[in-house]
Amino acid sequence: MTCKFLLKTVVFWASFLSVVYAQDLTVFDPTCDYKTDPIGIDDATPQFSWKLGSNGFGILQSAYQIRVATSISGLEKGYDVQWDSGKIDSDQSIHVAYGGDALKARQRYYWQVKVWDNKGHESGWSAKQYWEMGLLDEADWTGKWITTGGKDTLDGPSPIFCKSFNVPSGVKSARLYATARGVYEARINGHRVGEDYFTPGWTSYHNRLQYQVYDVSSLLIEGGNAISITLGDGWYRGHTYDKNKAMYGEELALLAQLEIELRDGSRILVNSDESWEFEFGPIRSSSFFNGEVYDARLINFEEKAARPLGMGNPVVVADYSKSGLVATYGPPVRKHESLRPVNIFKTPMGEVVADFGQNFAGFIRLKVRGSAGSQIKLQHAEVLDEAGNFYTDNLRAARQEICYTLNGRGEEIYEPHFTFQGFRYVKIELKGLQLDDVDLSAVVLYSDMRITGKFETSDSLLNQLQHNILWSQKSNFIEVPADCPQRDERLGWTGDAQAFYATAAFNMDIASFSIKWLGDLRADQRADGAVPFIVPAIIQGSAEGPWYGTSGYSDAATIVPWKLYQRYGDKRILAHQYESMKLWVDYVQTKSNHYLWNTGFHYGDHVSFEPTDKLLVAQAFAAHSVQNLINAAAVLGINEDVRSYSVVLDSVKAAFAREYINSDGSLTSPTQGAYVLALKFDLIPDSLVKQAITWLVKDIKDRGNLLSTGFMATPHLNLILSKYGFDDVAYDLLWQDSCPSWLYPVKRGATTIWERWDGIKPDNQLQDPFMNSFNHFANGSIGDWMYQTIGGIRLDEAWVGYKRFFIQPVPHDRLKFANSELETPYGKIATHWKIEGNQFDLEVDVPPNTEAEVIFPHSNMNGLDKDSLRSHAGVRRIKSDKEKLVVTLGSGNYRFHYFTK
Ligand code: BGC
Hints:
About 25% of the residues lie in helices and about 30% in strands. It is of the alpha+beta class and about 900 residues long.
């Protein structure tokens, strides 16, 4: 509840709850390594974060205390204590590292935190949380790798491995530890274990393979039980790029350990070993690219597999290593939204097509009735062609097809197991069925990240653009930040990822997802420092081939850690990545001649409308990476590196100036992309900056307010314009709806971001099908500017984790209001502004334990009562000059109201 006071003619009002009500201080959203109550972590020093809840103003944490015990009652009563931090005077409320006794495999730990604030309040203890350790040593794995002994084949039927076992009464708890070479789905007594898809996830399999831990206590019954685990090709053996397949190995394998603890303290182990058996089940083939073929007439087998069998084939024990097994760090892929067709229609060619109204990644859920042997075939596509027909050319070799054969036993419900498609349209082909027999819905899949951003305005086209950005993020953040979800690619292209990361971190909490991906980047980085174009690396060609070490892509090695550190304030990200960052920077220097990176293969400003000299782009990123390394070294206190790499940076910048800046101050490759990158990465001498920005603005205007940048420069284009005072030009680009622009696809009915500015050309022709994805997040990188400039939620380069931030919205005549929110590590920041005539309202939420510097957009602020502002409990400082008013606020909810004339 808020309480508003109208002050004089008003003006500025706020919730003066600190005066009216007693303040509460609470702790909420406690997390351990970014997760709530995780099971199965292998971090020796997990990090704790929490948020403060208070209805007071200007609240800062002054101290905290964390306690950890191995039992709930111990936590309450002070025994079984593993760590008690004591009361620590500190405002640190995020990423506090565990400091107690060594943690043991399988052990569950309970923890709580309490805090004190700067106003003398003390919170109660937070709700009790827990985390549970996974298996920490190779020796903890007593199960054996099992295989079919070479009987399963790529694109062939999925093997189901099973085992029956007895359980006496008195089960206290049960855990399934499992992983696979391939992807797996486990069932106990016929019930699916967990809600995750495509486990064990995708990592640098040559180096590290994740395992999962599930609490399966409730799935066991007294007496006879059965466990069955089905394997699919997945990323391990399936098709991974173009016509590549089996990039990691030819043979699927399973490693599982079901550990049951009884109340009398005894344990039952059901390990994967030679006592298991296997059969081939109803999944006749499954592949991310091609889809799934499922014969439900064989369902009998799967049912049997959930019972004691004794009739399957013997498994073969394999000698695969267990040394690279790691706990799962990132969020698993889960089901999210479900969609219904908005239309089912016949195309001009007479094909029956369902339109789900939204392009996305996921799969179909099918309900059908019919006779045994009748069939339904579904093909998935993103767009219709210009004649309105079903169009799949841009999928290249990916078939994206589901084929389901009915068993004829009443209503049948089917969802695919080891595949997902990128689609909006589904072509339906029926054999022995009528359309009325079939009910289709769709399930949206993505890595289970929390939505943290909200951005909406009075402009419906802009809202659709934000929607499209978010949906391209959903569609492509599936285990790795992939380029696209539909064609025969779906890879962690490092260049696309780094271009989009700043936007991605507004929309969703991408921290643990990215930390896991950076672990793979590290693992796949070559010993000489070269970083692959794609992570996890899909190796093609020779080691010296074109797949390692290119500008703007491999630079993700320095860009992503630094960006994540800024947004999430977690120093450990930098500590873990530091050697990798340094190796990459050193590698670039070994490939440079006198600090000029003019060798090797480079994409340049990929998919731009006007090509920029690729080597100029390379040199710009070379400088940027050195800068990121210096930043990281400074945070980590590695002063020697700060000194030595500052010398390198000066030389790299000098080489840029020598090679790419003409004597009249212009760039040798005078494109928007070149100017944007040079300005963004600080490569233009101060005396020439004005000239450079003038050139950039002129080029935009000469083109009729059109951009010409590609994946590398687009993320920085509007930010640079705004930085140098050209918000109006940035807005002109934003409102542009001719091609190329962000609103052009929106006007063409896009529901996701396109790979190419002109995926559908103004004359309605589709672009080259070889490269024409309609779900590619890279150009959605404008979202960063939208949140920062329209929403006004902005960090200074030196501020991290939103402990301190700017609120600096920049309104525009075309907008009546904008509502922006960001759930930060400290809590929610919100800005809501609206303009009616000359009346401007701004509402701001500043979370406890943070500080905001509000920079008002108008120089005329008639009616704003500065006296009441000055005396308000939450206001820390006020600075004003003729141009602007800057107010520094502590936590609280504030509303400002004034007239601009
Ligand atoms: C991907 C791009 C990527 C590029 C490199 C494409 O196939 O989809 O987004 O950046 O390859 O050229």
